Amino acid sequence: KIVLQERKQVVENNPESVFDERLNLILWGNSPYSRPITGTEDEIMALSAADIYQFYHRYYAPNNAILVLSGDIDVKTAKKLAEKYYGNIPNKDVIKRKVSEVKENFQERLTMRLPQIQSPKAIVKYLVPRENQENQMYAFQVLAEYLGGGETSALYQDLVVEQKKAFAVSVYYRLTASGNNLFSLSVIPTSDNDNEQIFTLLNEAMAKAVSEEFDASKLEKVKQKMLADLVYANDNPSDAAYWVGYMLANGYNLAEVQNYAENIRKVSLEDVRAAYKSLEQISRVDGLLLPVKKEESRD
Fold this sequence. Notes:
Layout: H1 2-12, H2 15-28, H3 41-46, H4 49-59, H5 75-86, E1 107-114, E2 121-128, H6 130-148, H7 154-162, E3 166-174, E4 181-189, H8 197-213, H9 216-234, H10 237-249, H11 254-258, H12 260-265, H13 269-278, E5 284-291, H14 294-298
Parallel strand pairs: 1-5
Antiparallel strand pairs: 2-4, 2-5, 3-4
Helix pairs in contact: 6-13, 7-8
């Protein structure tokens, strides 16, 4: 009941979360990534103590875990303590489920009107194939930062500052442990009139930003900002530990984590443009969340 209450507070009382769950279902299809993290109410209430016990004993094992320590640590002492507290826990034959990529190439649109919504919101989500990520992961990171990484980003300057067609713009690239990765854009339009046009405006602004305005100087500024953010994050032991654990849990080795800054430095204009161009060839879902029309609310 605690988990169910959490779902009600975090998801069911938040219309944007309800919208995002529906969007993910369309985007991911039969993939496990389409399912809500907490599960549905029926699934939560159907769980038994035996289910929890079985899950714990099936997956919680040293060979299926990552221990990250950060801070003012003496490595030799840390290894001794890790061996003391974890060394006697036996490994298990953990069957790791491989999540298949979504191979279909499709474009879908979801429009929802909810009474709790006050302002419209547009979201675009792309499914980036895992094979693209191996070669273009760092280029996608730079592309996301360039397009929507704060108020100095290309889309914010175009849609918010210059055209005044949006209140906010953000872009995000998320790694997943298996299957596709996610490249997403979020826009809050300034008006609820002609909201279908926001996707056209977004597409045009992206094309202009990457094809016409992106140059070596802007690329260098974006990379320097990312590297500065990385240094700042590493100054915080908690943030540093989270980043290392996140990368390792998503299938990257320690060398890739340690060389992350250098790999960002190596990203070229051509790499970023190729990453952007690949978005035209992969699956995409457009989502539009709108307030209920006044005449509909009266009815």
